[in-house]
Each structure stands twice: as C-alpha cells, then as structure tokens.
Amino acid sequence: MSRIVFVSSTQPPSELTLLSYEMTTVESAADALQEAADVYVIDGRTDLAGARAACQTLSRAEAPVLLLVALAGLAVLSPDWGFSDFVAANSEPAEFDARLRVLLRTNADPDVLVAGPIRVDGAAYSATLDGAPLDLTYTEFELLRYLMQHPGRVLSRETLVSQVWGYDYYGGTRTVDVHVRRLRAKLGQFDHYVGTVRNVGYRFANAREAHRAG
Fold first, then answer.
1. Measured between alpha carbons, how far is residue 125 from residues 78, 136, 144, 145, 206 in Å?
2. What pLDDT score does 194 carry?
3. Residue 191: φ, ψ to 5°
4. Whole-angstrom Cα distance, residue 103 to residue 3?
C-alpha cells in the first residue's frame, strides 16, 4: 500500500482519508523528511507562506509533493515553489485519488537517483560523484543503487545479498562488507552516506541527512 505523509498542524480532510492509502500526519517538513513516503501532501489551505517553505524543503526529497490549496490561493501559486502538482481543497475524493495516482506512477522506479553529490542513472548505467564519473564495478553499482532506492531504511546483509547478488548466490554475507568497504573508498569524503548499523547491516542517508551532508 502506498504511503502518504500529510504535512499539517491539523488532521487531513475526509476526502483524503477516505482513500485507500496508508496515511501519516506530521506537523512540519522537517518531520516529514524523517518518514518513508511515496507522496508528500502539504496543507496550504490556511498558511500559504508556510506551505511554500514546506514545498521548497520537500522538493529536495525523492518523493513527489502534492499541494492542497484553497481556491482563493490558486492565483498565487508558482512553479518555483517546488510542488509536483496541486489540488483544490474542495475537490472530490476521486480528484484527490487521480492526482495521487499520477504522482505515484510518475515516481515509480525512477531511473535517476540523487542524494547530495551522488547521482545514479539506471538507464545509462552510470554514476557520478560531485559531477565526476564514479568508476564502479557492476556489483558496486547495483549495491549503491539499491541502497539509494531505500534511503533511511536499515537493510540487513541477508536482504542485500538476495536483492543485489540474487537468491541463487551461495557465498557468505561477508561479501557485502567487502563491497561496502570498496564502495565507501570510492565515495571518499562522502562515504558517510552509507552508514553501518552494528550487527544488522547498512543504511543509506535519508533526504534530511543527505541535505545536511551536502
């Protein structure tokens, strides 16, 4: 089930809660960055200035941003706010659902992943670090891509072996440690993007951490 993070000091409107999505409400964009989200919905019904700031903050995250705005506020909206789409507050549930589905479909399995200075292009099978080509082996590339696809989540060695090396791989999980060590060496001063969770596995920096580190 897709997860929606609603950014507001009040509860989400019934038109949104009636839909079949997992819903979490947080009070600020900073809090939203700590949550795993498929779409952020920002409440701009009463505080457009705050909504604009939240949009600009969350535009740096990987998930798209849907801005909820009152009809009176439509005239002042601008693309430089950073939202992916907007919806009027008095819209029917079907309209909310249609907007969310488009954003979810557009954001599904993106070819390009960006975290601070690290950029991975799955279609071109290339990676760059601060704009310079990153020379990775096939496995290092797949490992980095999988980690970046799950920012902020702790991934066990067993999970990484099955997802990167494949279920038919019969080597030990320590090969993950070896490849992570090599990957970190190539990331140089940005090696902290790949964190170690002791006795469990590894974790790629979430959007908020990536922004601070960048």
1. 34, 10, 12, 10, 23
2. 95
3. -65, -20
4. 12
Regions in the chain scoring below 70 on pLDDT = 106-110, 167-172, 207-214
- pLDDT digit string (tens) for 40-77? 999 999 999 999 999 999 988 888 899 999 998 988 98
Domain boundaries, the chain: 3-107, 112-211
User: Which position has the token pair 């009809």?
Assistant: 71
Query: Which residue has tokens 């897709």?
Result: 2
What is the CB neighbour count within 10 angstroms for residue 61?
21
Residues 172-208, buried b or exposed e (16+ Cβ, 10 A)? Answer: ebebbeebbeebbebbeebeebbeeeeeebbbbbbbb
Please state whether the predicted TM-score (pTM) of the whole model is above 0.70.
no
- Residue 42's pLDDT is 97
β-bridge mates for residue 44, sequence order: 69
- Gap between the Cα atoms of 149 and 171, Å rounded: 24
- In this chain, the answer to whether the domains covering 3-107 and 112-211 adopt an identical fold is no
> How many whole angstroms from its chain centre is CA 6?
15
Fold observed for domain 112-211: Arc Repressor Mutant, subunit A (1.10.10)
- As a CATH number, domain 3-107 is 3.40.50.2300
